[in-house]
Amino acid sequence: MEPDDGGWRTIPFKLQLDKPLASHVCLRLLIFLLLSSICFALICDIYLNKLVRKDDGMVSREGFACNGPGGLEKYAYLQSSLSGPKYANNVLAFEFFHFESSLWPEMELSDSPSDGHIVSDLVRVNGIMTRLTLTLDGRLVWMEAGQRCLWLEKEVLGFSTEGSCIRIRAAIEFDEVGCCVGPGGGGGRRVVRRVLACETLSTESFTLWCQKLRDYLYSLGRPKKLLIFLNPFGGKRSAPKVFEDEVKPLLEDAAIEFDLQETGYQLHAKEIAHTVDLAKYDGIVCVSGDGILVEVINGLLERDDWKAAIKMPLGMIPAGTGNGMVKSLLDSVGQPCKAFYATLAIIRGHKRPLDVATISQEDKKFFSVLMLAWGLIADIDIESEKYRWMGIARLDFYALQRILHLRRYEGRISFVPAPGYEIHGEPASFSAEWAAPSQDHGEEQVDVLCSGYQGPKIKLEELSWRTIDGPFVSIWLHNVPWGSENTMAAPNAKFSDGYIDLIAIQDCPRLSLLSLMTEMDKGGHVKSPHVRYLKVKTLVLEPGPRTDNPAKEGIIDTDGEVLARGKGAYKSDQETFMAYGRLQVTVDQGLATLFSPK
Ligand SMILES: Nc1ncnc2c1ncn2[C@@H]1O[C@H](COP(=O)(O)OP(=O)(O)OP(=O)(O)O)[C@@H](O)[C@H]1O
């Protein structure tokens, strides 16, 4: 090395260090790029999976769009669900496409759609030219890597148009191994939202397809306009989010119009149901717990035109603490109690009748569709309110407390058993005192004197009555199987059998009681030898005081609300709709109508 100015020497720094440094930096950069691509791919994968397997791993929200070979547009649709351009040009999109492509429902090739069809034409489906056929039995059939098929009734939500493109929006149910469940299926494992883009080749074809699809969907009797009640304070206050995220997109896919009404206070939904112009709607939907449904039913039955009003189909979306009705509906076809499935049931427009129980005391009437409780269950339901801060755990905590300090109540139940349940209780003759005043009048007179529904017209004195005298631990009446999402109160209850299930406990050791309470999530409690489980047509309840303290009476609770509080009961200073005394329950078979998954 040559000496430099000031004794410094020039070090051939670049020559000696630059090359290794450059290759070192390049290598690092390469590793960095490789690692970040892997990370990016993983993050995308997790994100996309989250989209596909939302909440319970059952619901997918991706879709397809038209043109091209399908994949690019599909990716574009996906991208619109993601945030920002960072996902552009990512290889994952194509991987996702290949994964998705196999998920269009396949059809047996032997089943030729050309045998009978409503319309059949050459159309570009997801960018591929193919013959698209709408069969007489309501299937859309086309070729796309095999013969594909969509059932209009079960799978197609609706369609929209854009230029010459018809976008058919569907929700397809697949089983665990990825096979389409089809119209007969029920317990599907996951539902995928899809868009089938059909580009017609002429204006005539476009008009014909739109008309035939519209006619077919209209013929299914689906709702076109709904009145939707949303209780922003029900349950975990999740109703607005549930509606925006899960209900609204599906209603939009199905082109169902709606008027949204938030409930502002207690009984608001009842007031509206009582006065609203029902001719504007094809159904009323409650995004809430059971409380709003019960208000709507009471509002409809108090109208002068109750006979027509109560035929309005009612839909439930679970967004409350007690979602017993919608749980009963969805569980009956093996579907989870989720807003997504509940919304699909409403869109598809299937209906089922629902029994309505009239609870009468003097001239007062309350219409119940779920349950009535007196004794242990009512005490747990209502008194556990003081532990609301515990969340849902308050029920178990307070149940334990109530069982340890078990109360028994004096009283009597008199009932007309359903055929096959006559062994319960002792024979009794009908007492005129049991009848509500309106039942003393002739039928014609009742209709003239009172507006609104007055309860079923039954000749009580002509029925065979039976009686059970107390003390009682618990009396529980149930109209549908589930009392809440995790309480299968009455496993044999039917929506419209014209009977109400009675679950009565008179005497039961504390340990047995504790064990049968733990079986309520599966309905096992009704098998206990300490439980009477029967069906009744009508029932008269005469509640009395506690056996250990005659100065204290109990609570009667119906559909989650307190109907009556006795002397010395929890919050007995609060006014209730009925007095703690004799009341009568009668059932009107299939009076109301529910939107139902089947
Ligand atoms: N804006 C409001 N403020 C207060 N109460 C309301 C409001 N809207 C409705 N309510 C009342 O809330 C009650 C319960 O509503 P909802 O059916 O949604 O839930 P739930 O599961 O029955 O009960 P929870 O309130 O324990 O979740 C209804 O009886 C209704 O009268």
From TrEMBL:
Q: Report the GO terms under cellular component.
A: plant-type vacuole membrane
Membrane topology of the entry: Peripheral membrane protein
**Transmembrane spans:** 27-48
Q: Where in the cell is it found?
A: Vacuole membrane
GO BP terms: namely: cellular response to abscisic acid stimulus; sphingosine biosynthetic process
Q: Does the keyword Cell membrane apply?
A: no
An annotated Gene Ontology molecular function: sphingosine kinase activity
Listed EC numbers: 2.7.1.91
**Which UniProt key words apply to this protein?**
ATP-binding, Kinase, Membrane, Nucleotide-binding, Transferase, Transmembrane, Transmembrane helix
Record PROSITE patterns: DAGK
Report domain DAGKc positions.
Answer: 221-363
PANTHER family for this protein: ACYLGLYCEROL KINASE, MITOCHONDRIAL, SPHINGOSINE KINASE
Name of the molecule in the record: sphingosine kinase
Q: Which organism is it from?
A: Trapa incisa
Lineage, uppermost ranks:
Eukaryota, Viridiplantae, Streptophyta, Embryophyta, Tracheophyta
